[in-house]
Amino acid sequence: MPSRLQIITLVALAGCSGQKRRTPDDTLVVALDGVMTTADPRYTISNYDSKLAKLVYPGLMAVDTESMEPRLELADKLTQVDPLTWDAELRPDVKFSDGMPVTAADVAYTYQSMLDDKSDSVYHKNFVERFSSVEAISERVTRFHLKTPLATMASDLDFGILSKNQLGAGPYVVQELTSTHVVLRPNAFAIAKPLVPHVEILFVRDASARLLMLVGGSADLIQNGVRLDLVNEVLERPRVRIDAAPSVLLTYLMFNNDDKVLKDVRVRRAIALALDRPAIIAAQFQGRAVLATGLLPPNHWAYEGNVTRYTRDLPRAKALLDEAGLTDPDGDGPRPRVHFVYKTSSDAFRIAVAKVIVSQLAEVGIDVELRPFEFGTFFADVKKGQYQLASMQSPEITEPDLLFTLFNSVRIPDAKNPDGNNRWRYRNARVDVLTVAARAELDRTKRIALYSEVQKILADDVPIVPLWHEDNIVLTNVDVEGYHLTPNARLIGLVTTTKRH
C-alpha cells in the first residue's frame, strides 16, 4: 500500500502532466473504492450495493434528508389505520422503466417476496419480525399488517420496489454490471430524470489510482474515497473541486465490557478523558469531522446534546484509574498502570489514527499494544468478543432504533444470535426498557424523550467512546456541477449533476 508521501508525489506528477478531461460529455465517470455486485434491494450485501439499489429501485419512503426524517418517495401518503395497520398510497405518476405504472400489487409483490418462507435474503428475518402480511387493497393503496406497533414504520418503507419482471422506477437502469464497473442509463419514465445521460461507476480499490484518475482527467467524481489527510494536497492540483457536508456515520473506540478491567466504568471514563479528539481531528482529518457525543450526529432529529462530555483531562483520568485500583506503580517511571491490546483494520490511515490514540493513552499510564488485522479477521474477532479495545465505524445512522440494535442486551452475540450487533456486550436494564418502549412509541415527542434518556445513560456509562462523525467529501472535476451530498452518502446527487462542455 503506497505511503502518504508516495500518493502525494504521484498526484503531483499527474497534476503537472497537463492532461485535460478525457471523460465523454454525456457520461459521468465515478471512481468508487468498493465493488457493487447487485442492484436488487433484496440481495444487497454491502453499502455499495445499497447505493446502487437506491438509484434503480426507490422505495415508498426515503431516508436521506439532513435531519434523517423519512420523506415520501414513491408514496403520496402514509396513513396509520390502527396500531397494527398502515396504508401506503402511491403517487399517480410513478412508472417502471418499461413505462408501466407502479401499482399496489407491485408493492405487495416486493414485500411478499421478502416474507416468503423460501426467501434467501439476509433481510428476510427482519421483515418477518415486523410484518404479518402485506396486501393491495386498491390500484394505488397497499395495506401493511404489523405484528407489533412500530414507530419505525416510515423508515422501514425505505426499501426498493420491484415489478414482477424485476424492473425499477428509479432514475437509472443498469445497462451493464461486471466485476470492474457498472454502466447506468436513464429511466425515460422516471419522475426525476438525470441531467447527464449516462453514468459509469468504476471499481477502483487502490487509493492512489483513484486520485490519479481524478487529477489526470479520466474520472469526474470521487465520494468518500480519498484519505482525509490528503484532501488539501489534492486541492492544490488544477481542475479539482471539493464539497463537504456532515455525515451520519460514527467512528468510535469500542470496549469489551465483559473484560475484567474494562467492565469498570471508571476505567472507560478515564480512557475517554485521556483522548484529545480535537487534536486528532485537526491533525489527521484536517478539521473535516465533527466531535461526537453519542451514536446520533448533531443534525439528527432525535439527537440529545445535553449529555456528559469528555474533554481531555489527564489529572481526572489518572484519578479515576487510581479509584479503580490501577495505580501508577513507579510514579514518573516507565512501568504502566495497565496493559491492553487494541485491534484495528490494516488500513494505513486507520492505523495512523490508532497510533495517535495509543500515544495519548500512554500519557496516563495505559500501555496499549496495537494489532492491525485484515478486515475479515479483525471483524470476526470483534463478533466473537476476542478483543479488549478496537475501533470501527457505524453503519449509516438513519433510524434512532439503532440504539436498540446496538445497545439492548438481547442483541449481545451468543450461540443463538451470533450476528448480534451489541458487540461491546453492554448491559443496562434501563436502556433495555427504554429502547424497547421507543420502537413502539408512535408519539414523536414522547419517542424523542425516550431516546434522550437513552443517550444520557450511554454518555455516563461509556460502553464505547464516540469519537467523531467524519465529513462526507466529494472531489470532482471542475467541469462537474450540481452534485448534492446526502448525510448517508447515497449517490442520488448524480441525478442533478451537470457537466460543462
Sum this structure up briefly.
The protein is of the alpha+beta class and 501 residues long.
Structural class: alpha+beta
Shape: globular
> Kindly, what is the distance between the CA atoms of the first and last residues, rounded to a whole number of angstroms?
36 Å
In percent, how helical is the residue content?
25-40%
Strands side by side in the biggest sheet: 14-18-13-17-15-16
Q: Mean pLDDT, nearest integer?
A: 92
Low-confidence stretches: none
| Total number of strands | 21
Q: What summary fits the major beta sheet?
A: 6 strands, mixed
Structure characterization notes:
By secondary structure, this protein is of the alpha+beta class. Helix content is 29%, strand content 22%. The chain has helices at residues 4-15, 47-56, 104-115, 124-130, 153-156, 207-216, 231-235, 265-274, 277-284, 314-323, 348-362, 375-384, 402-407, 429-438, 444-461; strands at 27-32, 61-62, 71-72, 75-82, 85-90, 131-136, 141-146, 172-177, 181-186, 198-203, 221-223, 240-245, 251-255, 289-291, 338-345, 366-373, 389-393, 464-470, 472-477, 480-481, 498-499. A six-stranded mixed β-sheet has the order 14-18-13-17-15-16. A four-stranded mixed β-sheet has the order 1-10-9-8. A four-stranded antiparallel β-sheet has the order 4-5-7-6. The longest helix is centred in the C-terminal third of the chain and has 18 residues, at 444-461. The two termini are 36 Å apart.
